[in-house]
Amino acid sequence: MNGNVIDYLKFKKMITPVIIQVLFWLFAALVVIMGLVALSMRQPIGGIVMIFIGPIVVRICAEMTLVVFRINDAVQAIAAKKTESTPSA
Fold first, then answer.
1. Taking Cα atoms as reference points, which of 28, 50, 53 lies closest to residue 39?
2. For a disulfide at 38, which of 14, 20, 47, 52, Cβ 3.0-4.6 Å?
3. Is residue 1 part of a domain?
4. What are the residue ranges of helices labelled H in 10-43?
5. In this structure, is residue 56 part of a structural domain?
């Protein structure tokens, strides 16, 4: 088996950040489509707000979720450095 697959199976590498990035693009497209629908339903202000502000809000939510995983990666890197620098008894 490939080392990356083993890392995923042992939860050493997270798959959720990739899923979050895919979901971001899907939700951003959905918000823009909803904005276009709102424009066609004669709600110009709501549609324009959805088209321009919606993807920004979706991005902020995705980034806030990804920060947790980046913190996890940083803590694991610090733990690995600490383990490497600690002399074996």
1. 50
2. 47
3. no
4. 16-40
5. yes
